[in-house]
Design brief:
two-stranded antiparallel ribbon, 9 strands, 7-stranded mixed β-sheet
């Protein structure tokens, strides 16, 4: 049973040592930590983390350093976690708690079969599961954005925000992989894993959006879904 989900982005600036003298990500980090504290408060028996990477697979949580940072996440150094999971681990460390953690990546370009396979595996677990999903929105929301400006980014990201605000897994499932790739969206596949897993459980959820902004030309949304179960 998925007792709740949290959605957070994974920009490198969430790692405080990378922000320098001015902590430009303080508000975003606070929202992420609040979301994870809520997730832990739901009383999960395990926290399952899903984040995007070049390839899918299971990863061991631990103190492995985050690797070199690339456009759609991380191109990890040997022995390093992908960026999405490395940031997740740091955020989980910040909120504390003794809940076991399992970490999985889904390929940025994952198709329906790969998404469904991981979603099914999460939904079929017998424990009380807290699901943490790591994923950025479009990185093409301004002329100084990493991917420069693409006007289509605003509509795409607003669809994601509305889906998260409305706890609407079907809307997340309907996101187009090709368009997401063109808009440099790092979180599309991970969000669709969450949508698939939640839909399979059949429960309804209440949602709270804690943050939705694009301070660096990249859309970052933080949300929590709590199960009415």
């Amino acid at each position: 049973m998925i007792v709740g989900t949290a959605v957070c982005p994974h920009p490198p600036l969430l790692l405080r040592e990378l922000t320098g003298g001015q902590d430009v990500a303080a508000e975003l980090r606070k929202a992420c930590e609040e979301a994870l504290a809520s997730l832990v408060a739901f009383g999960p028996e395990v926290v399952v983390v899903v984040g995007g990477a070049d390839t899918g697979g299971r990863h061991e949580p631990g103190p492995a350093p985050v690797g070199a940072f690339g456009r759609t996440g991380a191109r990890p150094a040997e022995g390093a976690l992908p960026l999405s999971l490395g940031v997740a681990g740091r955020l989980l460390d910040a909120v504390g708690g003794a809940v076991p953690v399992e970490m999985y990546t889904v390929a940025f370009d994952a198709g329906p079969d790969e998404v469904a396979e991981l979603g099914r595996a999460i939904a079929d677990r017998p424990e009380r599961v807290g699901l943490l999903v790591m994923g950025d929105g479009s990185a093409r929301r301004g002329v100084k954005a990493p991917g420069h400006l693409d006007e289509r980014a605003f509509d795409f990201d607003e669809r994601v925000r509305r889906a998260l605000a409305g706890a609407d897994p079907s809307a997340l499932s309907g996101l187009e992989p090709g368009l997401a790739a063109e808009l440099w969206v790092a979180g599309r596949a991970a969000l669709q894993v969450m949508a698939d897993a939640v839909a399979r459980g059949g429960a309804t959820y209440r949602s709270e959006v804690l943050y939705a902004d694009d301070p660096f030309g990249v859309m970052y949304t933080v949300a929590v879904w709590s199960c009415d179960c």
